[in-house]
Amino acid sequence: MNTDCVHCFELVKTGNDHPRLDTVSDLGHSQICKCGHCGAMLMSTGNTWEMVIKGSVTRHHKNRKRNVA
Would you say 3 and 35 are in contact if contact means Cβ atoms under 8 Å apart? Predict the structure, then answer.
């Protein structure tokens, strides 16, 4: 797994807390979240996390600048 976001990488590999994770869907037994830093979509099942859609820090920030202008 390659990602520009250190927080997503650490969450998937070690389960460390992610400071910018927003819940998109909570189904009770699983949860889908979006990273506010790189735009990646992550899924939690039990105590494990996996990346569903890879994010990109540079692409995410470029899109935010475009939307502000």
Answer: no
